[in-house]
Amino acid sequence: MLEPERSLEHDRLRGSAVKNVGRNTVAPVLTSNFEESVNALANGCVCADRNIGDAHRNQRRSGIQEITSLLDLKQRYRHFLASLRQRSVDVHRQELAYATTAAEAGKLAALFSNDSILDDKQQSNVITASEDPESEQKQARVEEALYEIGRYSRAYADILKTVVTNVFILPSSVARAGSTSQAVGVIWINPKLSYPTPDLMEMLIHEFTHQAMFLDELRFEHYSYDAIANRSTWAKSAILNARRPLDKVLHSIVVAIEILLFRHRHIGQPVMPRAHPPSRIISQQLGESLSSVEDAIRRFPGILKPRAVELVTNARNIVSHASMPSPSRRAQQVASKPKRNTEHGL
Predict the structure, then answer these.
(1) Pick from 51, 97, 104, 53: which is nearest to 74 by CA?
(2) What is the DSSP letter of 19?
(3) pLDDT of residue 333
(4) Contact yes or no for 82/74 (Cβ under 8 A)
(5) From CA 200, how far away is CA 251, in angstroms rounded?
(6) Could you give the dihedral angle defined by the CA atoms of residues 56, 61, 67 and 68, in that order, rounded to the nearest 10 degrees?
(7) Longest alpha-carbon distance in the chain
(8) Domain range list for the chain
């Protein structure tokens, strides 16, 4: 996750434009080469019960095609998103699209409507479908945060801006960001303008991790959905610290690890974090959440598919590893912002 590495431009000059995209940089719990996963998805390697278009089924028969550039990856991925038939996807666009007016953003917000029992926090009701007078400033802050992420890892920023195709900004009095498996590639974000840039970076990493998990599930399948709707199977979330459906809890575990590692390896421990709890609290809740999920796996065999069990095991191994941050030793470290390269500033 966010390891310092060469730029993609350097790799292009060496004739390996996407060779290292996502490898050991994105969602370490997933432990896979992200470019390879996106390539497989784009070529029809999805779970048998997923609804994909006829064109995509035909593409599967033709065999997996090699991706030779970041542009290839983006185009293949967008065609894959279009095949899911969740929403209209501009398959020719290469850059992130922002929706900031109520009319534009409202179309994307409608994709977040969800009548499922698994929408346990009524996420579909938290977004306000009205004009946000600060939308342009919020977009500028998001772009600044993306730029800063790219300064730590160009490859991470590139894959984030590939997987996330659309960002919409609408106000809310109760939440700051969100993603839904009903609109893969779309994130809603509503940062306070007073948030420091590292908090916005964490918000983007948080939502991107959800997107990575959605894609991983499309490829491998994670849950027995009939079973996880039963409240008796719910476990403790690592972020909200409440009992929630296992799909939400597994996501929270991966998100918590991403945030902890990002702080540990790059920005240090924030004294007064705004987007997420202090690392000491996240670490404690993460341990409790993992134990809660492991207990659910023992009590309800088959409730998590083999891939999801593997992710839980990976998460436990990362948490137990000696290099995992110890917040108690670094609690007073102030997050330091890198000096901006004025030649490439926003």
Answers:
(1) 97
(2) T
(3) 40
(4) no
(5) 19
(6) -130
(7) 57
(8) 8-344
Closest to 80 in 3D by CA, of 53, 51, 42, 47: 42
Q: pTM for the complete prediction? A: 0.81
Unique residue bearing structure tokens 């960001």 = 177
What's the confidence (pLDDT) of residue 45?
64
What is the pLDDT, as a whole number, of residue 24?
Answer: 41
Collapse the DSSP code of 188 into the 3-class scheme (helix H, G, I; strand E, B; otherwise coil) and give the result: strand
Report phi then psi at 149, rounded to 5.
Answer: -60, -40
Ordered mean pLDDT values, 10 residues apiece, the chain (346 residues): 32 33 49 63 59 44 66 89 94 94 92 61 73 95 96 87 95 90 94 96 95 90 92 94 94 94 87 92 95 97 95 92 53 38 26
Tokens for 146, please give them: 């993306």
Buried b (16+ CB within 10 A) or exposed e, 225-238: eebbbeeebbbbbb
Which residues, 6+ apart, have CB-to-CB distance to 187 below 8 Å? 164, 166, 167, 168, 177, 178, 179, 207, 208, 210, 211
The CA distance from 28 to 30, in Å, is 5
Let me know the angle formed at the C-alpha of 206 by 344 and 40, rounded to the nearest 5 degrees: 90
Tokens encoding 273:
């974090």
Residue 254, SS3 per DSSP: helix
- Quote the tokens at residue 104: 């534009």
DSSP H helices in the chain? 8-13, 34-42, 54-61, 70-84, 102-109, 135-152, 154-163, 197-220, 225-228, 246-262, 279-299, 306-320, 327-330
pLDDT value of residue 44: 61
Residues in the chain: 346
- CA distance from start to end of the chain: 24
Q: Which two tokens stand for residue 344?
A: 């490439």
The whole-number pLDDT of residue 321 equals 79
Closest Cα to residue 129, out of 114, 155, 111?
Answer: 111
Q: Write down the pLDDT at residue 326.
A: 55
